[in-house]
Amino acid sequence: MNSITQYIENIRIIDGHEHLIPHSERKKMDADFFDLLHYVRSDLITAGLDPSFFEDGHSMSDRERAELFLKYWHKTKNTTYAQMLRWSVEDLYGMKDWSVEGILELNKKVKKATYDPDHYRYVLKDKAGIDLAFTLIFSTNVDFELFRPVMFMDHTFNITSLANIEALEKQWGNRIYEFEDLLKAMDAIIERYVKEGMVSIKIGAAYWRSLRVDKPTANEASYAFNRVKTFHLKESLAPEEAKPLQDYLIHHLIQQAIKFHMPIQIHTGHQEPSVSMNGNILTNSKVTDLVPLLLEYKEANFVLLHGGYPYYDEFLSIVKNFPNVYGDLTWCYIISPTATRDMLFKMIEMVPQSKIIGFGGDYSQVEGTYAHAKLARRILSEVLISKIEHGDMTEEDACEFADYILRDNLIDLYNLNMKYSSQLREGNHVSISK
After folding, report:
1. Is the N end or the C end of the chain the one with fewer CB atoms within 10 Å?
2. What is the pLDDT of residue 55?
3. Are both 139 and 107 inside the same structural domain?
4. Average pLDDT score over residue span 145-173
5. Per the domain annotation, does 22 fall within a domain?
6. Residue 412 — left, alpha, or beta (φ > 0 → left; ψ -120 to 50 → alpha)?
7. What is the pLDDT of residues 167-193, one digit of tens each?
């Protein structure tokens, strides 16, 4: 079955979700090896490393940092997060010596790469085989040769204080006196993002509240807004007071996404500790809480991120049954390769292949994206080969499935002016044994 593996290796991926910062920002932060840790930092912290290790302005020398890192690296190197770090630096920088001296030498190489203007193109296009990546960095100012922006919209509906309203006023450029002004501000911000090239909006509310969205009236939402407008001593609404306003604004946001034919990415499932604001209340992210929204907005396209892990059986059932819902495997492979294999097996059996988004690296630095893409191709190959060996798919079926989930579905869903996999292979065909 080497032909399947080779075929998948040659697919030019469209990456559905990243947090890759602009190259100019990477240079500004003088990024080094320790800035590549990203997800493994969570494992290092849960293994006992003091979170202050990652804070700006630390007083440790590079040698001291390397010594402390290695102490906790040996406690965490079994995890897939750690494996991704290992793959990225061994493949891209030739790292072999996991000692203090080896880390210091690696640090020099990573810093040199930070100032290489071709580094992003080399890693993403040449090494990872990624033609385009959607990146969520709170800005539409991206290199459009490599990226398309996705924008977080939580700041437009997470309204609990005057500071939240003032931030929207600054972004909109007008004062917000009445509830209707708040809706106008949201509309103007979305329209600006669309003009600047946004391909999708992102709702990350599960990190700070439940995904359950009720159906409050405009009067209920306006009442909560007016309560905020009476605050002058840095007060905030309690969560239960803020919910009618937040829920009403989420409905309005989805309606605007429909207007602009814009898919809506929603965080479901597992939470990253470094960005959690709720103490990792995992049950906030249960995908079944979204059902009322999915039922109401049949004309919207919802992209449910991260396989809903660990609630992925419910996730799969919802993706199977709702024509307007897409299942996205962003982040999944590095959370648990074993669970993602299980998800893929079940997806093949349950979900139309046109409704699966097969890869999103979800990293802040390109080195992590490279390693994640390598793992995703390997797992997808293993699953498809097993399906072929058991007689559930032909080799042609398997290759078509891979084309759909790694590239073609994203072209259709996000209205990208790009070539499908079959068009890219014209004149450069990878043979598949029949």
Report:
1. C
2. 85
3. no
4. 98
5. no
6. alpha
7. 999 999 999 999 999 999 999 999 999
109 with 156, same domain: the answer is: no
Question: Could you tell me if 129 and 373 are in contact, meaning their C-beta atoms sit under 8 angstroms apart?
Answer: yes
Angle at which helix 62-76 crosses helix 100-114, to 10 degrees, equals 110
145, pLDDT greater than 70: yes
**Tens-digit pLDDT profile for residues 277-326:** 556 789 999 999 999 999 999 999 999 999 999 999 999 999 999 999 99
Please report, as a single letter, which amino acid is at residue 212: R
Q: Are 246 and 390 contained in the same domain? A: yes
Q: Which among 177, 174, 166, 236 is positioned nearest to 208, based on CA atoms?
A: 236
Q: Does residue 306 share a domain with residue 382?
A: yes
Q: Are 182 and 221 in contact (CB under 8 A)?
A: no
Average pLDDT, the chain: 95
Nearest to 258 by CA among 218, 301, 196: 301
Residue 319 lies in domain: 121-424
Among candidate residues 117, 148, 183, the one where a domain is terminated: 117
- CA-CA distance, 309 to 48, in Å (whole number)? 25
Q: Are 9 and 129 in contact (CB under 8 A)?
A: yes
For residues 66 and 164, membership in a common domain is answered with no
Count up the domains in the chain and report the number: 2
pLDDT digits (tens, 9 = 90+) for 117-142: 999 999 999 999 999 999 999 999 99
What pLDDT, in 10s, does the model give residues 223-271?
999 999 999 889 999 999 999 999 999 999 999 999 999 999 999 999 9
Answer whether residue 66 is part of any domain. Answer: yes
Q: Is 195 helix (H, G, I), strand (E, B) or coil?
A: helix
DSSP one-letter string for 140-183: S---TTTEEEEEE-HHHH---SHHHHHHHHHHHTS---SHHHHH
Where residue 426 falls among pLDDT bands split at 50, 70, 90?
confident
Co-location of 365 and 267 in the same domain: yes
Per the rule left: phi > 0, alpha: psi between -120 and 50, beta: everything else, 280 is left
CA distance between the termini of the chain: 11
Specify whether the CB–CB gap between 327 and 347 falls below 8 A: yes
**Residues 191 and 290 reside in one and the same domain:** yes
Is 6 within the bounds of a domain? no
